[in-house]
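hey so u asked for the seq, here:
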Amino acid sequence: MNIYCISHKYIYETEKLLMLFFPLEKNNIFDEFISDDGNYFYTEIEETDKKIIFKARFSYEGKSLSDEKALLADQCEDREYELLSLAFPLLRTLCGFSPEWGMLTGVRPSKLMMNKMVESGENSAKEYFINHFFANEEKTLLALKVAKAELPIIKASPENSFSLYVSIPFCPTRCSYCSFVSHSIGSDTAKKLIPQYVDKLCEEIAVTAKKAEENGLVLTNVYWGGGTPTSLEAQQLDKILSAIEESFDFSRCGEYTVEAGRPDTITQEKLDVLKKHNVNRISINPQTFSDEVLKNIGRCHSAGLTEEKYILAREKGFDFINMDLIAGLPGDDYEGFVKSIDKAISLRAENITVHTLALKRSSTIVTENESDSVNSRNVSKMLEYAKNVLAENGYIPYYMYRQSKALGNFENVGWCKPGKECKYNILMMEEYQHILSVGAGSVTKLLSPGIEKIERVFNFKFPFEYISRFEKIIEKKEKINAFFSEYNKN
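ran it, structure tokens below
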């Protein structure tokens, strides 16, 4: 679709608004209007000495709607909002539906809700979502519940605390919906890279710990993600876990999480290694309990194996286990999703995270034109069932985020038994704690007082580049000291 952004800088925001209605559309963006007889989205800001005039027009399937409004220049505080809120009703009317989150396009609706709730109270925050952003009441209440669950954990987090994130970008195979940079451990390339990667990672861990110590930072959480960390061999896991223990002060670290997401990577020996190093939270992620759907998404294990490895983890003493499920997977239907949710609940997982399938550009589903096999019509119904049955069984929504190109513009929600919240998920997602990250593709996030500034330090994405340019990775660690040097001056 052609997008015309005339005399304004809100190009990204305008396209994101349109994507709420057309998530897979390929757009062409212009700063001048040309004669256009097809579908197009037009926005303009015209300024005079005293007024700002906002204009919007949407043409779709032979019908067209337009609107405009003028505001006094000295009374216009948020031009972006005024432009988008003018355009949104046109899109909603001609497309014949309203996104449940209204015109909210951000990743963190619960953070927005929390800030508004602290600033002006619950009722005002709810009205802000419904009247200002056109969100429906159900999604507004979900954001409110999540914000209320997050707030005590955020308030209890010391200002000088941090979480350590460890990236393991390797998996048994690549799932069809995945867009992460990860290597299949069965490939010759990965077999050569992994030993070198582990060695370099241990070096980076030691350097990162030194930076944390130099700047008086206190470790409160450790989180291994990927990829699938348990793709590594038991002795490789042991080597990295030992490096972390030897490098960091664990006296105030209460939460240690390792994603063991793929059940086909879990062994008794690996669980013993994790337990020996005091890992107290793991993920075992079925995504679905349907063997047919597992095959559709490229997973080489059965639903039965997921349950088998879950029981093994329980026998090994893991009493904080998360299970991920995805609504909208290829070949899945409402009844199948219901069975998956019910199964996860029956296993009594402490945390159940319900994701909405996101059609990422680099995923196999999209690149091989398999998105037609995705059933998006039932996703709302699936999420509604999950919300109701999880609440009935004593789970609460404790963190939430959204992804671009998610089916129906829906959200991902972490549910847990009260008191079983994963603090890292909250503090990382809402950006209320320093995150020191190690490994390929990881991002260190440093927060200034009042979170007025977030400094990001990016590691190279690909393992081969991480290894070959490792000296540059170590050089980048100096940015941590530079940030806190400026921090302390102010």
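The first strand starts at residue 2 and ends at 6. Residues 162 and 226 are 19 Å apart (CA to CA).
lmk if thats what u needed
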